[in-house]
Amino acid sequence: MAEDNAVNQKLMGKVLTKLGYVPEIVPDGLQAVEAALRTEYGAILMDCQMPEMDGFSATAEIRRREDPARRVPVIALTANAMKGDSDRCIAAGMDDDLAKFINLPLLAEALQRWTHSARRETAEKSLLRN
Question: Which SS3 state, helix, strand or coil, does residue 81 take?
Answer without folding.
Answer: coil
